[in-house]
Amino acid sequence: MQSLTLRLMGPVELVGPGNVRLTPRGMRARGALAVMGSAVAMRVLRARLQDLLFSTREPDHANASLRQVLREIRIGLGDAREALVSGPGWVGLDARMVRLDMTARPGPDGQMPEFAADLDIPDPEFEDWLRDARMHAEQAVTPSAPEPSLLPVLLTAEPVSSDLEAGVIAAMVMGEAAGRVCDLVPMVAMPDRADPGQAAIVLSSVANRLGRDIHLLVKLSHRPSGRLFWSHKFVLDADNLSASMNDCMAQICVGVMRVLEAVRTLDAALGVSFADVFSFSQARLHRAEQALAGMNDGVSASLTMALRAWVLTTQVFERLVPDPQGSIQQAQELAVKAREADPYSATALGVGSVVEGYMKHGQVSFWLAQQAVQMDGRNPLARYAYSRALTDLGRHKEAHGEAQAGLAEALSVLNPATWQMRMGIALTRLGRFDEAEQRFDAVQQFAPENRPSLRFLAALRYHRHDEAGALAALQALRKVEPGFSLDLMASDTYPVATLRQGGLLGITRSGLI
């Protein structure tokens, strides 16, 4: 099977192996290539193509003219004529043979060419289509030799399926998974036939129906190396399809995140670390802040600023910055800008809620979190922020319920320490100290450098008269928080509001250290 390339930035060009020119001479034939090549899956309704190219002709005449245009394309393809495919009511290009190249190559004058620059078809329908296509291409174009992007790329392949319904369901799951990833970490998703200009992760799938259930095999691989990093087979239960699709989507999202972490050692273009953003380590948080600060991609501007605000707020909570007030104000500014860039982003709203909560703006924090959940109830940051805001308003049973629901979501595995910490605080507020202590123990298993969990462990262990356990927690806290003392813990400025509210600061008078 020959590999062909369709170039649409500048003159329309179709070339084969060895750069052999296969472009038809007729302008309407080249126009048909532009329409098919830029369509979803490179397929277009025959009636639509006919209307774009021959809207001013009588239907019979237009149909005959379209047949002639397609014949001209097929003749130009020569031995690769099977690249022009058709079906009931549609015509298109075989995406397995034809690669779309939207790379813009500057001309001798240094100017970037426009989409299908050589087309001038005197048809009002085509002129309207071409104008819209050129406006879209200005946003989607891939410049030649671009500046190295810090944003990783996820290429999504069209699902392979012999069953139409299974293929549609697979496309829905894959599309939502790709969108969910891009909601959580700065990343660019595009069809796998596009040339991203850098290394990428490829998300592909094969779907089939066995009985009433749909079997879906999903793979994540690295381009250009071709190395397979993740593969998983899912069985979507026909009797509970919605829940099965949601669980499948979440697991694919987690798989993408795992692969991102794995390939960071292979390629700097895939160097975004979700784990760094949601860590509690000073070095990793600093690395995340530096990486996010260097990202200026317009598509992910809101998400990038929101995650920077999250990192800064975590650094303030963890007492890792010399100027907490300045840092939290910077976080607030970033959170506001993130919402301005995308007012409907659940992530931006959720992060904004957390920042406002730290600044003791409880009602504002609640409203932002409430709106975040309304926008996307399955977004983990939205659910976390909502539970936190409920705690700040004293609605502890509801806060615990939200934390439980969030922890039950598959995406909670992306930041387990954060969710276990949220559960521990909610249980402490409810007076369920033994259960809370177990949650803080779990936090330490996931994030030994987490300072707040050590404060809770020391206080809760001392409260149940386990002085040895309390001393161990205090000693561990001293290692990760230089300058810690019991007098400091007892001060009004130290972040132990939940312990103070629960009457658990007896540890500060223990004299254990």
Largest sheet descriptor? 6 strands, mixed
Low-confidence runs: 144-150
Mean pLDDT rating? 87
Quickly give the CATH architecture of the largest domain.
Orthogonal Bundle
Q: What's the helical proportion of residues?
A: 40-55%
How many strand elements?
Answer: 14
The fold-level CATH name of the largest domain is Arc Repressor Mutant, subunit A
User: Could you name the CATH homologous superfamily of the largest domain?
Assistant: Winged helix-like DNA-binding domain superfamily/Winged helix DNA-binding domain
Class of secondary structure makeup: alpha/beta
CATH class of the largest domain: Mainly Alpha
Number of distinct helices: 20
**How far apart are the first and last residues' alpha carbons, in Å?**
74 Å
Task: State the shape.
Answer: elongated
Write a concise keyword list for the protein shown above.
Double Stranded RNA Binding Domain, TPR repeat, SARP family transcriptional regulator, WH-like_DNA-bd_sf, TPR_rpt, alpha/beta, TPR-like_helical_dom_sf, 53% helix, Arc Repressor Mutant, subunit A, Serine Threonine Protein Phosphatase 5, Tetratricopeptide repeat
